[in-house]
Design brief:
Layout: H1 2-18, E1 24-25, E2 41-48, E3 58-62, E4 65-70, E5 74-81, E6 83-90, E7 97-103, E8 108-112, E9 124-126, H2 128-137, E10 142-143
Parallel strand pairs: 1-10, 2-8
Antiparallel strand pairs: 1-4, 2-5, 3-4, 3-6, 6-7, 8-9
Length: 144
């Protein structure tokens, strides 16, 4: 009986430790008090509010450049020059999902990504009001 309890405690501890994923951003985090730092650029928020798949981080790239690793209940934010970009998001060992955007200078884009269902997830583009509300409920990224 003690062996069964020890095994149960070990599994519980492993579950708790793997569930503590945090978002790490590879590129500089812009000043969150400003709408956009550089008016010639656009700001992007990639938000993951889901608590499903807590141990899973999604890798995020733009043009082969790592933006960071997106954990649950958090967001990544960065600024890009105006023009066309492709954001790639990959969770698990699945093929990356791509989000094509045409960025306007001075604009802010809020994208919700539920990567827990990595095979079928689709990005959801939010209004500024919806995006701000969701960002306020999520954890800010840590710099790498």
């Amino acid at each position: 009986m003690k062996t069964v309890m020890r095994i149960g405690w070990c599994y519980s501890l492993i579950f708790l430790l793997t569930g503590c994923a945090s978002t790490v951003q590879s590129v500089r985090v812009p000043d969150l008090n400003k709408r956009v730092e550089d008016p010639a650029k656009a700001r992007i928020y990639l938000i993951r509010p889901s608590i499903i798949g807590t141990a899973i981080k999604a890798d995020v790239w733009v043009g082969g450049r790592s933006i960071g690793k997106l954990a649950y209940n958090s967001f990544l934010t960065w600024e890009e020059p105006a023009g066309e970009i492709t954001i790639s998001v990959q969770a698990y060992s699945n093929a990356p999902r791509r989000i094509d955007l045409k960025l306007s200078p001075g604009s802010v884009y809020y994208i919700q990504a539920d990567v827990a269902s990595a095979v079928n997830w689709q990005p959801l583009f939010l209004s500024e009001a919806e995006g701000r509300e969701l960002v306020s409920k999520c954890k800010a990224p840590k710099s790498e």
